[in-house]
Design brief:
Blueprint: H1 2-18, H2 25-73, H3 77-82, E1 87-91, E2 98-102, H4 103-107, E3 112-113, E4 120-121, H5 131-134
Helix pairs in contact: 1-2
Protein name: Zinc-ribbon domain-containing protein
Keywords: Coiled coil
Coiled coil: 40-71
Amino acid sequence: MEYLYERVAYLRGLVEGLGIENSTKEGKVITNIIDVLSDFADAINELNESQEELDEYVEAIDEDLSNVEDELFDEDEDDYEDDDYGFIEVECPHCNEYVYLDEEVLDKGEEVLCPNCHEPIEIDMDCCHHDCCCDE
């Protein structure tokens, strides 16, 4: 933004070099125009500095937000693929629909009703409930 100050200074030099007096109507207008241009240069310079400060501030906030997102959401997605979330898939012997049962409910030995046919589902707790042994 220094070029604006340089150009205003150049215009002031031209006015002084040409010998334009403040006492004439034209001299007053030209001098006031140069003063206004100087005020504009100051205002633009202040806006530029404020914009740079805002850019730095937004960049810092963006970095902080990125760190927070990494902490909250950056979990290994592979962990979710292998995890069954504590549910076991079981085929209802009455309606042959597959249902997901909570392992905690099964561990407590509570009776489980099929959500489709509302018949009780018998679960063999000695079985590991994995596909590898259910095919045998």
